[in-house]
Amino acid sequence: MTTTPDPQSATSAPDRDVVVVGAGPAGLMTARMLQAAGLSVAVLEARERVGGRTWSDVVDGAFLELGGQWVSPDQTALLGLLDELGLSTFPRYREGRSLYRTAEGETVAYEGDTMPVGDATAAEMERLTALLDDLAAEIGCREPWASPRARELDRISFHHWLREQSGDEVACDNIGLFIAGGMLTKPAHAFSALQAVLMAASAGSFSHLLDDGFILDRRVVGGMQSVSEAMAADLEVHLETPVRTIRTHTAGVVVESDRTTLTARRVVVAVPPNLYTRISFDPPLPRRQHQMHQHLSLGLVIKVHAVYDRPFWREQGLSGTCFGPSSLVQEVYDNTNHDDPRGTLVGFVSDEKADALLELDDDARRAAVLGSIAEYLGPDALAPEVYAESDWASEEWTRGAYAASFDLGGLSRWGRHQTAPVGRIHWACSDTAAEGYQHVDGALRRGAAAAREVLDAG
C-alpha cells in the first residue's frame, strides 16, 4: 500500500502508539500485550459493550450465553488466560443417552459417540472420518494453501467431495453436519473440501469435531464474555465508537471514528473480515485485499435458548445431546448454567434451514423451533419458562456467525495474504487463526501474533 506524506501528522507526536479497532478477544489481547510492553494503546469499539461475538446476558431473568461459549482441552491459549485472570470453568452436562433423529422421522437413543445407524453406514462414517483425519494431519492448519493438494481440494465443494468418496448418502449427510451446520454454518456445497480440512485441522483432527465431549467440553463460570471484560478492565476502551476511516501517511496513521480522531504509529484492525469494507482506507487497500475480502463471508446460524423449571431430560436418563441432519434444529445440548436448578437447552438452526425459519413471524418461529426440539425430547420441551434466539446475522457489527470462510477456490488463492500487514495496518481476528480457528482461543492467538508484529516493526 502506498503511503503519502502528511506534514502535520509527520511532525506531531501521535496521540497513541497503537490504535486497535474492535474490543473482541482478539483486539483486547492485542492491546493487552502491547500495553504490557510499554506502548500506549487505545481500543475503539463500535458496540456498547466489549466481547465481540461473545455475549453473556440476562434475558427474562435467565442468564444466557448469546454468543461463543465453549472451551475444549486443546485451547491452551484460552485456558492459560483463564488461569491468569483467575476465571474458572465447569463441565458441560453429558451423562446419559444421546438422541439421533433419522431422515424418516424416528428418534433413537444411543450411548457413546457412534450414531445409531446401520452397520454399512457406520463403516462408511468411520472410513470418511479416517480420510479427513489423514488429510488434516497431512495438510495442517497453518498453511493449508501450501499443500501440493491445496488446489485440487479447493476446487471441489465439501458436499461433492464426500460423495466422490462414498455412495452412502446418510453417511455423507452425517459427516457433513459437523463441518457445514456445526462449524462453518454454510451448506456443504458452498465451501471447499480444503476449507473443511482446515476446520478439522484447526481442532487437531476431524475426530475431535465429532466428539462433542471434546469440542464442547467446558464453559466459563460467569460467561465467556467475562474474559473480555476482565481484559478490558485495565485498558483504554472507547465504546460506541465505530471507526469510519483509516488514513495512512509516511509517519503513522489517523483513525477517524464517530466520537474521536486519534493519531498513532500503527493500527490493528481486529474485526471480522466481512466488516473491513465498513471502513474507508485512504489510500485504498491494495487490489489483492479488495479481491480477497469479496470472497470471504460469514455463515448463518440461529442459536436458540430454552430454559425450563428443571432439566427434565435428565429424569429420563438423557444427556440432552441430540443430532438430526434432516431436522430443523440439527443440534441440541444441555446448556444448564453453573449451580442453576433450572434446566437450559441450546439448539442451532443453520444455513438454508435458518433462511426458512427467518421468514416466519416470532410466534411461528418459536413454535417451529420448540416443535423440532420436542421431536427429540418429548412434549415437555414445548413449554419453557424463557425462550430466546441469538440471530447474529441481524447484529449490525457482526452480520453472521460463527466465522468467515472462503468460497470455492479462495483459500488456496488468497489464504496466505489474510494476515499480512499492509504498511502500518495489521489484522487480528479468530477468522484468520490456524489453531483455534473461529474460536476464542484462535482470537487470542491472532491477537498475540498481531501484537508481536507491531513490536517487531518498531
Quick overview of this protein structure:
By secondary structure, this protein is of the alpha/beta class.
Summarize the SSE layout with pairings:
Blueprint: H1 7-11, E1 16-21, H2 25-36, E2 41-44, E3 56-59, E4 62-65, E5 70-71, H3 76-85, E6 89-91, E7 97-101, E8 107-110, H4 119-139, H5 150-154, H6 158-165, H7 169-184, H8 193-202, H9 206-210, H10 212-215, E9 218-220, H11 225-232, E10 236-238, E11 243-249, E12 252-257, E13 261-269, E14 280-282, H12 287-294, E15 296-298, E16 301-308, H13 312-315, E17 318-323, E18 331-334, E19 343-350, H14 351-357, H15 362-377, E20 386-391, E21 404-406, H16 410-414, E22 425-427, H17 440-457
Parallel strand pairs: 1-2, 1-13, 2-10, 7-17, 11-14, 13-22
Antiparallel strand pairs: 3-4, 5-9, 6-9, 7-8, 11-12, 12-13, 15-21, 16-19, 16-20, 17-18, 18-19
Helix pairs in contact: 2-11, 2-17, 3-17, 4-7, 4-8, 6-7, 6-8
Description:
This protein is an alpha/beta fold and 458 residues long. The chain has 3 domains: 143 residues, FAD/NAD(P)-binding domain; 126 residues, Polyamine Oxidase, Chain A, domain 2; 90 residues, Guanine Nucleotide Dissociation Inhibitor, domain 1 (Orthogonal Bundle), CATH 1.10.405. The chain has 17 helices and 22 strands. Strands 1, 2, 10, 11, 12, 13, 14 and 22 form an 8-stranded mixed sheet that branches. Strands 8-7-17-18-19-16-20 form a 7-stranded mixed sheet. A hairpin with a 5-residue loop joins strand 7 and strand 8. Helix 2 runs parallel beside helix 11, helix 2 runs parallel beside helix 17 and helix 6 packs across helix 8. The longest helix is centred in the first third of the chain and has 21 residues. The two termini are 18 Å apart.
